[in-house]
């Protein structure tokens, strides 16, 4: 699914009931969000987050294996930039974000595979990219195109009692394209056509 960078989100809305026809009749909550667009000024942003094991307690699996808390490091960083292509007509916006998390899994096979007991790395990596272009054809016509990409990988099947030889690697890549065309008829009637493709 499309997961925009934190810096790409302009606003979001959570609906728990009384949905309009545009979101269909699916049960459960609906979360709608809009992504930022470029403006007539060049603007950018940058952010970072760092966390390590000094803020953590021992995990349940570390308590079972009777070992000290393992190394933990999480870096999350990114930024955005946008501006005009043609003043008052066409604009661009882009945002990127990367997460690097280095954790460990303590494994105790309870005597079944003693050679596999130990502490093993379980790294997680994720990259998010959002690109958007918008154009005001005239006061009554507006076009936007957005591309989003999410790629991530991490160990699969890691648990306190499973030897690493039974683990796998989960690798995912999601691509999303959204094109939106809005036009106003008669000064008051808003029409909208949306094309979306995701894989």
Radius of gyration (Å): 23 Å
Number of discrete helical segments: 1
**Cα distance, first to last residue?**
8 Å
Largest sheet, strands/sense/barrel: 7 strands, antiparallel
- Assign the structural class, choosing from mainly alpha, mainly beta, alpha/beta, alpha+beta, or little secondary structure: mainly beta
Mean pLDDT: 89
Low-confidence parts, pLDDT < 50 over ≥5 residues? none
Outline type:
elongated
H-E string: EEEHEEEEEE
Number of strands: 9
- Order of strands across the biggest sheet? 3-4-5-6-7-8-9
Strand and helix layout:
Elements: E1 9-15, E2 30-35, E3 43-52, H1 60-64, E4 73-86, E5 90-107, E6 118-138, E7 141-156, E8 168-185, E9 189-198
Antiparallel strand pairs: 1-2, 3-4, 4-5, 5-6, 6-7, 7-8, 8-9
Would you give an account of this structure?
This protein is mainly β. Helix content is about 5%, strand content about 60%. It contains 1 helix and 9 strands. The strands form 2 sheets. A 7-stranded antiparallel sheet has the order 3-4-5-6-7-8-9, with no helix packed on it. Strands 1-2 form a two-stranded antiparallel sheet. Strand 6 and strand 7 form a beta hairpin. It is elongated.
Brief account:
3% of the residues lie in helices and 60% in strands. The protein is mainly β and 199 residues long.
Features:
two-stranded antiparallel ribbon; 9 strands; mainly beta; 1 helix; 3% helix; 199 residues
